[in-house]
Amino acid sequence: MEKPNYNTDIVRSFINWGIIWGLVAILVGVIVSLQMVEPALNFPPYLTFGRLRPLHTNAGIYGWAVGTTFALFLYMVQRLCKTRLWSDKLARFQLWFFNATIITAAITLLLGYTTSKEYHELEWPVDIMVVILWVAFAINIIMTIIKRREEQMYISLWYMMASIVGVAILYIVDGAEVPVSLFKSYSAYAGTNDANVHWWFGHNAVAMVLTAPPLAMFYYVLPKSTGVPIYSHRMSIIAFWSLIFMYLWTGAHHLLWTPVPDWIQTLAMAFSVMLIAPSWGSVFNGYLSMRGQWHQMRENYLVKFLIIGITFYGLQTLQGPMQAIRSFSAFIHYTDWVPAHIHMGTMGWVSMIAFASIYYLVPRVYGRELYSVPLANLHFWLILIGQLIWTISLWIAGVLQAGMWTATNSDGSLAYSFMETMVEMYPYWWARVFGGIIFLIGVLVFIYNLVMTTRRGEISPASERAAVEGRA
Amino acid sequence: MWERKPVLLLVLATAAIMVGTIVTMILPFAWVNTDADRIATVTPYNPLEQEGRDIYIREGCNNCHTQTIRPLVTEVLRYGDYSKSGEFVYDRPFLWGSKRTGPDLARIGGKYPDAWHYKHMESPRAMVPRSNMPDYGWLKNNLLDPQSIRHKMDVLGFPYKQAEIDALKGKNEMDAIVAYLQKLGTGIPWRKTAETLVVGELHNPYQDDLTVLDAGKALYMQHCAACHGEKLQGEIGPELTDLDMPDADLYQILFNGFPEDGMPPFSAIGSDRLWKMVNFLKNEAKH
């Protein structure tokens, strides 16, 4: 079959912008971690912790994760469908509108325009921009799939489509609000209802933005990197359908012990525990795909990122359900354990897979060999060590904090005042700063390696490139 | 079959997503924030409080402070009565938060006098040593805009009087956020009902025991000095140099506080420590 003329320019652009916003997210992350230990580093009104923290999360989720998702999806959809994108113009529009949206988001958050809903802080005009962006993206992907030249739709395409509809539903429902001025609105829901709707969004955004897309990438990049197909197609089917069915029941596990009705909390707890199965379905599928290929962990830097990434996914999806159990939640919720859990997911799972996917893409869309594999290995170790310091220190901090909060004297009075528990956190918060800086250095090595690849990397032989690309 | 039909896959995926959504997110609207949840004493925010709430949102206070107290022993001891659904019916959006870098604020209203909040917002470390909260004294420089606040009240459908709007003139953002903090958790008369009566004869186990004075002083510095001064000279609270009363009465005051004057109860720190503070205070007052 004649090789289709794929659109690689758009993939290059999204890689660049995804990385730029990722760098912003990590830099702001290091700054807010410093603000927690040194309050004098807050510069009101624009640069206080309260305003920078949402900027950190938004840049991370919507700039870095979604930016990389766009790059990967636009690349994968063309290969998996053996056809060029449905519309190049729409893709170009998507790129510029993506950056316009992220820039608007960053500026408005610094100005204090926020709805205060975690991971959905953007005020209504920016919400509308996000919706337009998502519609443009969705149309292009779905139309490309519809006019594909490959009968079967590979696993990655299922996850892509599920995340497209999932994000659309979640974002619109949670974003419903009544505007009072250009940048101020009140939620359409009140109190307990608002909380329940919001955490239905908050948890499932993790599914549809930070789980399904990296899984789509993993299922594509892993077999491409190892040269061996995914272990079980049937296992992928079961894991896929049970994941997208079960995830949506679990949002209220963020609201255990709150005034949300008990039966919702119980359902959320039960489904969270059951969710281990589909999550680990993908983990095992990944591990079993490595049968006879484990030596590649040593020889192939891509495999290292992918397998450690999916391992963090496995740990994350064991820890998550554990935290969703009432007794454990009573102890650990609201402590520093929570950011530790989140960052194992974002730094360990999402970013590892994103780094691997970008390493896979760049040589292909630029037609050049990676500049330096040793640097890629250095990058791997820096982000792994940085992430481990970050999360382990905050796990310890969280357990210590929870222990102090719940400690009582023999007469039933509280053993510690709140401030006595807070000052104990400082050493761990310093450790977080340190871990964050190591992670940041790792990312700078990554960026340097990619820049050198595009400038000085050896040009891949055209025939070899075609052979790689021809494999579906 | 669905692996070959993208439209079918989209329909099936949407259906799979909607099942859990309907059960756990849409159905609850039939039971939550209905009349069964209502609490008669919970009232909407007045214009000043609502504006304070919007400032609280703008500054992202919810990133560090939660506003839900769970029905767990130590939380109720630390913060007060646990949160009820009916207390939040006027909250758009909810502000329950997810992380306690600072303490929960669900029942902060009425715990301290206004003066404490002004000083604390201006310089948190002056009141709470080693706090990592940023300074918010700059809120005083921003005057409120009565017209935009009136518009917000109209959109929310909250009742207000023209006098309340007029009174906003000349007020600043600090006034608003303090008013909001003082409103929090006051929708139910929980302080009254939660008050524990100390029954039986109170006897100071450390009567004339000078060895606990250091411990008493440390406790005073931690819990009382911000309001009553390091040398008991008073500032936000009254000076304490004249405490001519039986030990048992002083214990009662520390135990229950004076909620109407903004002195919080210290029952949660335990009787042993309260008696040590009594000893310290009585001893200092003598000099």
TrEMBL record, chain A:
Membrane disposition: Multi-pass membrane protein
Cytochrome oxidase subunit I profile domain mapped to chain residues: 14-472
Keyword Oxidoreductase: no
Organism encoding this protein: Geothermobacter hydrogeniphilus
Keyword Electron transport among record annotations: yes
Transmembrane segments: 14-37, 57-75, 96-116, 128-146, 153-173, 199-222, 234-257, 263-289, 301-320, 340-362, 382-408, 428-451
Molecular-function GO term, any one: cytochrome-c oxidase activity
Protein name: Cytochrome C oxidase Cbb3
Keywords tagged on the record: Electron transport, Heme, Iron, Membrane, Metal-binding, Respiratory chain, Transmembrane, Transmembrane helix, Transport
UniProtKB/TrEMBL annotation, chain B:
Pfam families: Cytochrome_CBB3, FixO
InterPro entries xrefs: Cyt_c-like_dom (IPR009056), Cyt_c-like_dom_sf (IPR036909), Cyt_c_oxidase_monohaem-su/FixO (IPR003468), Cytochrome_c550/c551-like (IPR051811)
Extent of the signal sequence: none
Annotated Cytochrome c domain residues: 47-185, 211-287
Ubl conjugation recorded as keyword: no
Keyword Acyltransferase: no
SUPFAM superfamilies the UniProt entry points to: Cytochrome c (SSF46626)
Entry keywords, A to Z: Electron transport, Heme, Iron, Membrane, Metal-binding, Transmembrane, Transmembrane helix, Transport
One Gene Ontology MF term: heme binding
Organism superkingdom: Bacteria
Transmembrane segments: 7-31
UniProt cross-references to NCBIfam families, sorted A to Z: ccoO (TIGR00781), PRK14487.1 (NF011055)
Matches recorded under PANTHER family: CYTOCHROME C-553-LIKE, MENAQUINOL-CYTOCHROME C REDUCTASE CYTOCHROME B_C SUBUNIT
Protein name: Cytochrome-c oxidase, cbb3-type subunit II
